[in-house]
Automatic annotation (TrEMBL):
Keywords: ATP-binding, Cell membrane, Kinase, Membrane, Nucleotide-binding, Phosphoprotein, Transferase, Transmembrane, Transmembrane helix, Two-component regulatory system
Domain Histidine kinase: 1-151
Name listed for the protein in its UniProt record: histidine kinase
Location(s) in or outside the cell: Cell membrane
One Gene Ontology MF term: kinase activity
Amino acid sequence: EKVNICLFMQSILRKMEPAFESKGVKLEFICQKETFAHIDPIRFEQVFLNLLDNALKYSDTNTLTAIEITKKENIIDINVRDQGHGIPAEDLPYIFDRLYRVDKSRSRLTGGYGLGLSIVKEIIDAHGGTISVESQLNKGTCFKITLKGLYDENRFADR
Ligand code: ATP
Ligand code: MG
C-alpha cells in the first residue's frame, strides 16, 4: 500500500502524545514532505509504537524524543532518537533477539518481555528495509531505519 510516511507518523504520534506528556518527555517531529513508501500500515504502526514505547519507557522526565524522516534519492531515513538510559555496548548486538532484555532486575520494574524489538526487526526485514542502533550509556539511543521510497509521481510529468 502506498503511504505518505509523514502523515502516517503524525497519526501515530497523536496516539502516543498523552503518554509522553504525562511523563514529561518532549516529542519532536521533523519530516520531509511528499515522502511515500510501499508499506503495510498495520504492521508498520507496530514498528513505531514499539520504538516509541521503548523511548518513553527508558527515558526520564525532562528529556527529548525526536523523530526525523528524510529522503535522499530513493531512500527514506527514519531516526528515532531519545535521551534516555542508553544501552551498554556489550548488549547492543543482542537487542533485536527475541526475549533479550538488558537489565534483568530493572526489567521487573519496567515490565515487558523483550519482544518489541524482535518484532520491529522482523517487520523491517519483511519490507526489505534495514534497522540499526547507536547508543551511549546515560546519554541516549538512536534507532535508524532505512526504507526504499517511491519517487514522486509528478517528477517526470513535464517530460
Ligand atoms: P517489550 O517490548 O516486549 O515490552 P522490552 O521493551 O524489554 O519488552 P525490547 O523492546 O525488545 O523489549 O527491547 C529489548 C531491550 O533493549 C530492552 O529490555 C532494553 O533493555 C533495551 N532497549 C530497547 N530500546 C531502548 C531504548 N530506547 N533505550 C534504552 N534501552 C532500550
Ligand atoms: Mg519494548
